[in-house]
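Backbone description:
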Amino acid sequence: MTSKWRQFQVSILFLLLIVALTWGNSLEQHHALSVASMPPLLELEKKLIDNLEDYANVLEQKLQVLRSYIPVLRAENAKGRKDAMFYLFNPLNAHSLIRRLHQDWPKWRTYMMQPVGTVQIRNFGSWKTDLPTNTDLCDACAGIVRIKSIYDLKVEDIVQGKIDGCQYNFSMSSADVFAVGYQLAKGKAELEGVQWLQQVSKRLQQDILLIPPHLAIAELEVLKLLAECHLNENKYSKALTLVERCLKIEPQRAYFIRLRLKINELIGDQRNGTIEKEKRPEKALEKAFKLSCRGLLKTSTKLHCSYNFSTTPFLRFAPLKMELVGLSPYVVLYHDVLSAQESAQLIELATSDLKASGVFQAKGSAFKRLRTVKARWIKKEFNELTKRITRRIRDMTGFDLTEAEKFQIINYGIGGHYNMHKDYFNLTKIPYKEVALAEHFGDRIATVLFYLSDVEQGGATVFPKSGYTIYPRAGTALLWYNLHTDGHCDPSTLHAACPVMVGSKWVMTEWIRERGQMFIRRCLKPSA
């Protein structure tokens, strides 16, 4: 009986653990993955500021009571101390002193101990679950680092609000900069972390008069992180100098004493100077990706524009404006295929139910996310607007969309991007469930990518192997084929979404499957 009871208890605990984990995951908002989902955070911050002001008002009321009565108390006490015996000769004064000390001062103690602002503290507790998590902060920091890396920007420029040559009326606080440096240092990207932490180190003296003590970044913490970064990069002399500065602030701290001994031993072992970490050479494709995002990769395409009259009979009456981006792979850009009103309606439709749609390269690391967006899937039959756009895609492509995937409306977050990828499937590397779907519906024969918004800076769609760079422009749509006419995958369709520097990027994607096109796009075997 006891054994069964224990098994029952273990089962209950296991179920509770699963529920807790599921509930915890459901609470994660992934704020940094979508600019569109962040306005509620400003409203939350306003409520917190109002609440803090209420708290200050309550404190001030108590303070006013204290300050208003202290002069009264002090005056009576000073009168007695001026000539104590003369004061106490009067029985009324003596009685009053005894009574004050016996009754009034215990009441003052009670008044001092009374909690102040309990309502405001309780309010804060009720909003705590709505605050961004550490994952959100890590995502936000990763977005800033991604912008700096891909577009080859200087840290000091970003800190001052200068982004890719454009000066904005915003800048980063010391806490903002330190958060980025901290995440990099703890994420084993010490060389990059040093650049950010050095900016914090330069600002500390300026912050003393500007920032409340409880919000200020401790100089010791910055120096410690910098020393650890230099140590991990084998720059022992710089690390030792920083440790010595730490010991001047806290001479008895055992950690710094041990660290100094360790560094001195390493310097003794390496008397020929510091040893730089071996840098991983940048692959040609990675370099091409970055150059494409910056618009610096030359392409051999001969662009030209035309009207598409022929894909469907309807286009004879209302031809589409078509711009040829390139032939290898074949990519075309359709202009004015969505009106401003239609784009706005799609954005409004998606905003109400955006979900995190991040793809990870390494579990648990925001710096390794292949994709930083939020998205919503919409059925093509959802309403008259989606049905109308479905017919428009049919006019653009000529394909049967009966078995095509749902629309995916996407909004990009801070430094929002989608790293290099292909839209067709590799059946050996996808989950079994998706293999079954791919076998039933076929591979993704084509992709149609609608741009629902302009982007002020960054956010281009690039094809690194071909050098195509297409900048988001509201109302346009990009079309390319993922498969050759013989049905084989086209690796030249490798593409990426460059990080958004400034702006909110909205797109809608439609992936068209090959099974329904057997009578529309014949499978042509290459001639021998």
Q: What stands out?
A: The chain has three domains: 40-128, 134-269, 285-517.
